[in-house]
Each structure stands twice: as C-alpha cells, then as structure tokens.
Amino acid sequence: MDERCYALLIDADNVSAKYIKPILTELSKYGIITYKRIYGDWTSTQHASWKDELLRNSITPIQQFSYTQGKNATDSAMIIDAMDILYTNDVDGFCIVSSDSDFTRLVSRLRESGKMVIGMGENKTPEPFRKACDKFTILENLLSDQEPAAEKEVHDQISKEKIEDAIIKMVIENQNSNKESGLGEIGSRLVSLYPDFDVRSYGYNMLSKFLEEFSGIQLVKHGNYVSVALKEDRGMKEDIDAYVVSLVQKAGKDGMELSTLGNRVYEKYKDFKIRDYGYAQFNKYVKSVKHIEVKQDGTILKARYVK
Asked: What's the CATH superfamily of 5-151?
C-alpha cells in the first residue's frame, strides 16, 4: 500500500528548535513528509537557534515580517500556505506544529476537506487546538528519553479513571454486539475520543503496558493478537448469582419484579456494578444467571425461577 503524504508546517514563534528531530521522527511514523516549511521573522534574533536546524533538516524557511507590533503575522502566512497546499490536493494530511490556539479553525477546515491533521505542541497548548486535531502529540513527550521528568512542565492529563471508564464502555459495547475488543481498536478509539491521549504522558511507551495498570480490565493474548476484556471477580459473581436465585425462588411462582430484585441486590452488594461483568443493563445480567428467566408481565419485567 502506498504511504500517505503529509505537509509539515511549523510556527517558529511558538515552538523551540530543540524539538525538530523528534518532530520529524514522530511524523515519519505516519508517512512521507513532502512539504517541510517553517514560518517566522528570520531577521529577528529570536529565531537564531532554528537557523542551523533548517539547513540540517532541509526545512524551507518562509519569511514573514512583523508589520504590526503585537500581531502574529506568522499565523496568516501559515494559513494561506495550508489552504494553497490543500487545493493542490497532493497530500493526504497535514502536521501543524504550534502551541497557539489561533490555528484551531484552520485544523477544522482541513479536516472538513477530508484531510487528516496531526497537531504537535508544547504542554501549554490550549485545549481547543488539541481537540480539533485527529491526533495531538505533546512535544515534551517526544523528549522523554532526553530530559528528566522533573524538569518537564506538566499539563492537566486525562485522568486514568476517565480512561478506564471509557475503555470499559467500549468493551461492553463490543460484547453486546458479540465482538472482541482488539488492543489496536481500543488505542484508535481512545485517540478519537481524546486526540491528545498519549501513553508517554503517563510514563509508558506501549499501550499494553499502560492498560496492565487498570484493575477493571485485562489483556488476553491469542498468538500475536491481543484483545482487551473485563476483569471479573468470579467469587463475587458466584455470590451475587446465588443471592439472586435465592430471592427469586422465595418469591414463588409469580416471580419478583426486576426493579425490586435490583434494589435488593444493590442494597446487599454496595460495590456491585453490572458493567464489571460485561453488561449494560441489569435485566441482561439477570438473564445470564442459571435457573432464572426474565419475562414481561403486562408492563412489568419479572424474574422467575426455572429448574
């Protein structure tokens, strides 16, 4: 399959020259870099550190004078070039490197035209720009092997609890459709949900190692294929199943209303969550219990004991 082609556009006003090699290495994972342009006022001493890197890495500098004090002329030049490249239709995607939220609308426009947009910026990059991209990479993460963690600025990360909850929902959705949840699919869906999600932000270099940290999920290997599944507490499930059977049995031939059964179970097992066992609805869980059937009685769902 042909490799995808990308245009790399860098905002020199908002990105340090120390990131250039990691930027090129990271983008090369996605495809071929056919455009390499960087924008700034090259008459300014502010960009002196970039000049050697441009020649070394064959990056084309685009001169943009700062005509008005306090205005960022670089933004306009980058936006115009990006649209020109878009209309030539000879790239599959763009990589916009900046820590400035002013490019948020540009990113949205490129995506509306069917182009993939990879954003890169420092930890200080505002949320709107991050979320607008298909994928956003924090530049400090690309230097993780070179800089001590204590020296790096830390941005508010997506909480691990939120990530685990999202993964559990994905697995349950797939289970309800009788599908396995492949590790690759989970990774792709996390990036779609949180474009700035990156396991390197949490000190890992592999998604599988990161997921092993969660108590509610487990990795299942089938040869070279790895899937993600819910980690069940078998002992607790057996206790709950037995309790459900005893309650329904005692209710007799008329059975027990499902809402009443649910209240009794939640009262006894305070930490009981049906999602921990792969179900999105309580009635689905009850149907999985041996010797119990769930049937409609008028407008009411009832659980009955069957031998």
From this structure: 5'-nuclease (3.40.50.1010)
